[in-house]
Amino acid sequence: MKFGKVENPELVDFTLPKDHPDTKNILNEFKNQNSFEAYVGCAKWNRADLKGFYPRGTKDELTYYSKQFNSIELNATFYKMPDWQQVQTWKNKTPDDFKFFPKITDLITHYRRLINVEEPIQNYCNAVSNFEEKLGMAFMQLHDNFKPKDFERLKTALEFFPPEIPLAVEVRNEEWFSDEKVSDDFHNLLKELNMANIIVDTAGRRDMLHMRLTSPVVFIRYVGANHASDPKRLDDWVARIKKWKEEGLQKLYFFVHQNLEVESPLLAAHFIENLNKELNLSLKIPNKKDDINPTLF
Fold it and tell me: Sorted alphabetically, which InterPro entries does this protein's record hold (predicted)?
């Protein structure tokens, strides 16, 4: 994942910003509901990207991956419209408690740019609905140059999206964050539709750490810098999530990326271990391999 990559990460202030006031207001509505779910995973299960993660002789990467993590950010559906047969194949390879988080196909977001997308949205949703109980949440990532001038286009597409398929949305253009009215309109739309507002933590785009939730669900895409600062950044996230849980957070979806993905399982294991400790959870800690740059820690 090259988005937000910088040449000198040691020069970046990785401090997490304060919460937007709306976040506490949203979470307080759910403070007395005694429930919490956490799903943590990587963005890929491909052996070439996660070199050193799979034991020698592993025959099926997804089957092994799904026994180490409880979720996957499924980017394969971005590059090709999924079909129900492929979805069922993926589903049947994983344990009962595993969840998929499929990205919406680029035909919808990048090629058609949300114009005349009713049919492809239906096709996409019909396909991913075959994940059934293993569907965590779909997510829509808009192109970097998709700007607020096309807000009505986005609103139309989101209102058309079937509510039976949970959805999170990621906007990337700087104008969504720099203009207060634009930001308010976007966040209010997601709140009205009960959709999650994706938070991206990446070195070169600190504005995407808006810390403004629109539902009691937080979807975080963490991008490590392949730098010694990565574990401390994850520790800071554990502290913030603990705070949000105390305020009423119901679901955590957290996915670890790296510019060089080889370290993603190790970082995810570090995050899960601390999350279990601080939130009294019992998520499985993935196997750590000695050859995945242990000097990072």
Answer: DUF72 (IPR002763), UPF0759_sf (IPR036520)
